[in-house]
Description:
Blueprint: H1 2-13, H2 23-29, E1 32-45, E2 52-65, E3 71-77, E4 79-81, E5 84-86, E6 99-106, E7 113-115, E8 122-128, E9 131-135, E10 141-143, H3 144-155
Amino acid sequence: MLAAGLFIVLFSAMPAWPEPPGFGALARQAEIVALATCTTAESRWDAVDPIIVTRVELQVDRLFKGEAGSTLLVNTLGGRVGQQGMGASDAVSFTAGERAVVFLRSSTYGPYYVIVGGTAGKLGVESSSAGLRLRARRGTAIDLATFAARIAGASAPP
């Protein structure tokens, strides 16, 4: 009985899951913030470690921060090779034809980018009568003009 009570007290004293980073924090960490369309997403076994990685090719539709060519190469953890699948708790996935806004930084392991902030670093895009909107946290949406202003403000030098 005492152990159960102690467990409840300790569990209730534990902090809640951390809040995902906001647009400003993500933008400050990212070298590139772009609206892009996934043209390919191909999973393979890593050449060094026994993990599956997915190489994603993104066609840049609009840059909000940074400089980039028309195509970005991104590696993500996880994917499916044959009958074997592998995932990571905070990894993002892409499908061909999907549009998203991504926060990217250069990888230290090769000539490709990685997503900043895990799942917070990829925002889905939806079309509305008013234009494109980004699906943000908790089901909220934000229009591209408002998003661009927030990124410009967060990326400006102090």
